[in-house]
Amino acid sequence: MTIGQIALWGLVVGFIMSMVVITGFAYTTLLERKVLARMQARVGPNRAGYIPFPTRTGREKKLLAGFMQPAADAVKLFFKEDPTPAKADWLVYNLAPMLAVIPAILILAVIPWAGKIPGLVPEQYNYFAIVPGLNVAVLFILAVTSISVYGVVLAGWASNSKYAVLGGIRASAQMISYELAMSLSVLIPVMLANSMDMGVIVEAQKGHWYVFLQPVAAIIFSIAALAELQRAPFDLLEAEQELSAGFNVEYAGMRFGMFFMAEYMKMISLSAIAATLFFGGYRGPFVDQIPVLGFVYLFLKIFIGLFLMIWIRATFPRLRYDQLMLFGWKVLLPVSVINFMIVAVFIVLAAEGVFAPIANFFGF
Amino acid sequence: MGNPIIFLLLAIVAIGSAIGMLTSHNAVHSALYLVLNFATIGVFYIVLNAPFIAMVQITVYAGAIMVLFLFVIMLLGAEQLRGVTDVHGGERFHRAVAGLLAAVLLLSSALLLFQSETPAATAPMLDTSPTALGLHLFSGYVFPFEVTGLLLLVSMIGVFIFGKTKKRGKDA
After folding, report:
1. Based on the domain organization, do B71 and B139 belong to the same domain?
2. What is the CATH number of the domain that holds B14?
3. Coil, strand, or helix at residue A279?
4. Rg (alpha carbons) of chain A, rounded to whole number
5. Tell me: the pLDDT tens digits for A217-238?
6. What residue of B is the nearest CA neighbor of A171?
């Protein structure tokens, strides 16, 4: 394949995968509402759409009740009035929802979805991704997550509302604080796999996922990713009691919906990144024989990640602002720096053969 | 340097955003133009076959520094600059001098560029993978690298010292 053909292929695959994930976003909202409802002993949305299933008594049973809820939500949001506040900064106000959604979709570009599928993957590359073989993939993720704060901050500022500005300032402070710990924990799989290529990191986890080698880094990444996402218990920027709704208080209609779209898309992409860096990515039993299974395993791992996030939201109360900053700077950052140094020293010692006698003793 | 059309488009965006940053009367708009400029420079690095520098450019400049800028602008509420009408004589003089100096800088750099012996198109294609870059940095340039690291550490300690509020008897 020539470079032009690969670029075209990347565009087509990117379009298809984005559509798949946007559908996934719609159903993540339903999943969240259903799971939260079950955890709070409610039923959740069950009116929009069902599959009728006849039973012997004559009354039909309603299967999958509520599966059309995302479509109903979307229709409702599209038909709502979508005003711009008179004193708002018109351009930035309209730009902010787009700036929130675009990075959330962009992160998906480097995630390897499956191994080498003959016919689906250009022959130069060893795995299926929108942009396979990018040798700075991990840096790309850090770059995109670092620009994703703009959507929230600008939405808060452009609304020209006190609550929204406070939400935006909280968001920027929080994301700057937790980005450091996240970057340092992302570097550890890079050091262990000796590459910034996501596919190489996945292949290096053959047999041993990095979560077992480096549980500390995995835990730090999970906490920092939750803070990056501004999900509970770190959802201070939309604390209803203090800020009414935070940065998106002035938005309505689908532009309001786009912030939710950004949040849920980022949930999906960050659980995909966590799965790729620490939980073996698309790897699982028999994935070498049947590479298409990679999709199934990665989707399963993303689903587990999403479920955990919803579970955490249902379980933990929101942190106070000073607790958040204290935890980020005085606990998470020092722990990740020390962990980083320990891993670096151990890798050098292992390369020098210091651990060879111990490994021989245990018969590795 | 790849396709001249791509270069031209990128150059228009870069220069346009730079001019927008200078002429805009709203500090937040200026900051946004600067973000666009930094992102365009990042794309330039990709076109020049330097993906590592491109990603670092976007992470550090567009992602970290400009977010801090915006944070400070929003926190101080310093969005609106004074209007153009209340420029007094002294300031007009300063502006003229600054404009003159900028013109001299632009002309001299353009002259240097046109006179240079090796245009970018004929420069040899280097291995720009992160591995090669790291090896290069830690074999040929260890000393400057370490000095830079030390400087950054010192400035960080300086920030802590300046930022620390003195407690006077009372517990703050």
Report:
1. no
2. 1.20.120.1200
3. coil
4. 22
5. 899 999 998 888 888 788 776 6
6. B71
- The answer to whether B73 and B79 have CB atoms below 8 angstroms apart is yes
> For A260-307, what is each residue's pLDDT tens digit?
888 888 889 899 999 998 888 888 788 777 878 888 888 899 999 999
Q: Which residues of A touch B (CB under 8 A)?
A: 89, 92, 134-136, 139-140, 142-143, 146-147, 149-150, 153-154, 156-157, 165, 168-169, 172-173, 175-176, 179, 196
Same domain as B73, residue B135: no
Q: Using an 8 Å CB-CB cutoff, list chain A residues near B63.
A: 142-143, 146-147, 149
Q: Is A352 left (phi over 0), alpha (psi -120 to 50) or beta?
A: alpha
Give the residue from B79, B94, B115 where a domain finishes. B79
Whole-prediction pTM: 0.84
**B133 and B62 within one domain:** no
Q: In whole angstroms, how far apart are CA A260 and each of A28, A33, A308, A351, B128? A: 11, 13, 18, 46, 38
Q: What is the maximum span of chain A, computed from C-alpha positions, in angstroms?
A: 75
Question: Are B1 and B75 found together in one domain?
Answer: yes
ipTM comes to 0.80
Domain end, chosen from B45, B60, B79, is at B79
Regarding whether B133 and B75 lie in a shared domain, the answer is: no
- Tell me which residue range forms the domain holding B6: 1-79
Q: Chain A: nearest CA to B84, how far in angstroms?
A: 20
Distance from CA of A116 to the nearest CA of B (A): 23
Q: Give Cα separations from A35 to A267, A286, A317, B28, B89 (angstroms).
A: 15, 31, 17, 40, 68
Would you call B55 and A154 a contact, using CB atoms and an 8 Å cutoff?
Answer: no
Contact with chain A for residue B16, Cβ under 8 A: no
DSSP state of A329: I
In a domain, B89, yes or no: no
